[in-house]
Amino acid sequence: GWGSHSSSGKPVPGLTTLSGNSFFPISQKLHQGITVVVDRYAFSGVAFTSAKENFCLDWCKQPDVGLPKPDLILFLQLSPEEAAERGNFGHERYEISSFQEKVLQSFYCLMKDKTLNWKTVDASKSIEDLHREIRSIAEETMQKVQNKPLGELWK
């Protein structure tokens, strides 16, 4: 896709990995009335890529424009201090605190889009409490959107 190259024509690795046609099976499932849960979807790639130098948020969104619009986006909020207390923090490629702060700011910018249903959940809770809260939010959302048409992301 056109989004896989920068304005200079150089490839931008990873930007279009999950874009376009790879989401066609999701659209099929949604049109069949099947609920689909996706980890990270388009927002994570946009936030991480835009946190890098010289990539604006709007440019990073372009490969994902028109994907099925999620009915709900859950943002699991956890302070860096609490995350650091958990095992293996810092071992992943992007877990460097200054970069993570830029990623977080990108997510906050994405959350300003009032056409999307963002819900922030306190991820410091116990797994059981977190599960109950997420399930409750998801079930409530599924009831609300049951008979609504499928939207398109960022259109």
Plain-language structure description:
The chain starts with 23 loop residues before the first helix and ends in a 10-residue tail after the last helix. The protein has one domain (2-145): Rossmann fold (3-Layer(aba) Sandwich). Helices cover 41% and strands 6% of the residues. By secondary structure, it is mainly α. Strands 1-2 form a two-stranded parallel sheet. It has helices spanning 24-31, 41-50, 57-61, 80-85, 97-111, 127-145; strands spanning 73-77, 118-122. This is dTMP kinase.
Summary of the model, kept short:
The chain is about 40% helix and about 5% strand. With about 160 residues, the protein is mainly alpha-helical. The chain starts with about 25 loop residues before the first helix and ends in a 10-residue tail after the last helix.
